[in-house]
Amino acid sequence: MHSVEAAEPTGTYPFSFLLVPLMQFPKSIEEAHAAEFYQFLEKTQGLIRSPKLFELLCSFARILEFPWVAYHRQSGDEILKMVRCNPPAVSYPDEWQDHYAKMGYDRIDPIIKKSRKQADAFRWSEAHNDMIKTELERRFFEEAAAFGLRSGVSVPLHGPGGSFAIMSFARPSSCEPENKMVTYLKFAAVHFHLSVADFAKRVAGKCPELTPRERECILWVARGKSSWDIGRILDISENTVNFHIKNITRKLDVSSRTVAALKAASLGIIEL
C-alpha cells in the first residue's frame, strides 16, 4: 500500500459510505455499536492516506474487542502471503507473523482456502470445521491460539480480473462473536478495501511507466547497490546502469537516485 496526504472532506460520502445507510439494520444492532461505526465512517470521510485509514480501522476493531487486524491483497495468480507491508497493514503479534512465515503457512492456511470459496464474512470456527483435513491444518489453529489469536472473523473481498483480498480481525478470547459484530466488521472491511482500491487507481493514473530494465536498476538502487554492483548483477556496463538511472530520475521528476528509489517504492513501481 502507499501513502498520500489526506484529501479535504468533500461534504459528501463516496460510494463505500453509502453501503451502510442503505441497509436496514435490526434495532439491536443499532443500539450496540452503531455510534462507534458511524464515528469510524465520519473520521475516514475523504481520507485516502492508507496508514491513517488502517490506524482508524484498528481503533474501531479494538472497540469491538478485536485487537489485531490483517489485510492482504493479491491479483491474478499471485500467491497471497502474510508479509509486513510498508506502510503496515498487519497488526498481528510480531512473533506470530515470524512463525507464520517460517512455517510457510500461506500454503495451507485454512482461512485463505475458505476465503477463496466464500463471498461473505465468516468466523474462524467455520473455517476450522469446514476446511480442516490434515494434521498441519489442525496445528495451524492450535499454534495461532498459542500466540493469542484464539478466534476471529475474516472478510473475503473478491474483485475483477481475479483480484482477491482478505481482511481478518482476531482476538484472544475464544468466545464466538455475535452476528452484529460480524456485520459491522464486514462493512468496515469493505469500506477500507474500497478506499484502498480507489487510491490505487489514482496512483496508477499518475504513475510513470518504467521499462523492465529500469525497474531492475532502481530496485537494486533501493537495496543499496552502486552502479558498478548493479552492472555486475545485471551483466551490463556501469555506464548503461547510469544511463537507465538518469532516465528514471527524469521520469520520476526527482534529482537523485536515492529519492528516485524512495518514490518508486512509494508508488508501487518496486517492492522492497
Automatic annotation (TrEMBL):
Domain HTH luxR-type: 203-268
Domain of life: Bacteria
Record's keyword annotation contains Transcription: yes
Molecular function, one GO term: DNA binding
This protein's record includes keyword S-adenosyl-L-methionine: no
GO terms under biological process: regulation of DNA-templated transcription
Pfam families named among the record's database cross-references: Autoind_bind (PF03472), GerE (PF00196)
Alphabetized UniProt keyword annotations: DNA-binding, Transcription, Transcription regulation
Name this polypeptide is given: LuxR family quorum-sensing system transcriptional regulator CciR
UniProt organism field: Rhizobium lentis
